[in-house]
Amino acid sequence: MKKLYLMRHGQTLFNKLEKIQGACDSPLTSDGIEQAKVAKKYFELNQIKLENFYSSTQERASDTLEIIIGNNDYRRKKGLKEWNFGTFEGESERINPQRPAGETSFGDSFVPYGGESSKDVQKRMNDTLTSIMEEQDNVLAVSHGGAMYLFIQKWLPYEEVSKIKFANCCILEFEYEEEKFTFKKAVNHNFDSKI
């Protein structure tokens, strides 16, 4: 059974300032760097064998991965990028639109503003991760909260997804077989304890 560890990047300046951050980027904070170091220790202490490494093309994800693996021997994939929020990018999170009735995310709310629909993000994440897992095993892929949230909704009922906290450096563990992902668990570290 193949294993995928799908992880969110560490805290960024825009996360700290509560700004909408999708296609735009901002650097990791000192807390974000520490979170990545704690995640690295998690893999080491649990003797998790990672063989193949992928990151979104965004700096916050690639910087997080480089802290964990200690080098830049990995591949970047545009399909792992965060949801593009169009002209909402860089604005306060307080102006995010209301979730449309019956939706488990923002749906098409950002499309009129030059952003992506939730279905488009979910499809590119699923296509990218399926392609990776068809070729590789024991994969660590660093992506983003919104994109991860939409990806897991393809494979897990929303009632269960809604219980998962997508904190910075959250790790979602999946098994993969015959083009299907099976969710195993989510790991959110107590960063105050600094493992």
From TrEMBL:
A GO cellular component annotation in the UniProt record: cytoplasm
Binding site residues for substrate: 8-15, 60
GO MF annotation terms: phosphatase activity
InterPro entries documented for this protein: His_Pase_superF_clade-1, His_PPase_superfam, PG/BPGM_mutase_AS, PGM_Phosphatase
CDD domains in the record: HP_PGM_like (cd07067)
PANTHER family assigned to the protein according to its UniProt record, in alphabetical order: BROAD-SPECIFICITY PHOSPHATASE YOR283W-RELATED, HISTIDINE PHOSPHATASE FAMILY PROTEIN
Protein's name in the database: Phosphoglycerate mutase
The organism's taxonomic lineage, starting at the top: Bacteria, Bacillati, Bacillota, Bacilli, Lactobacillales
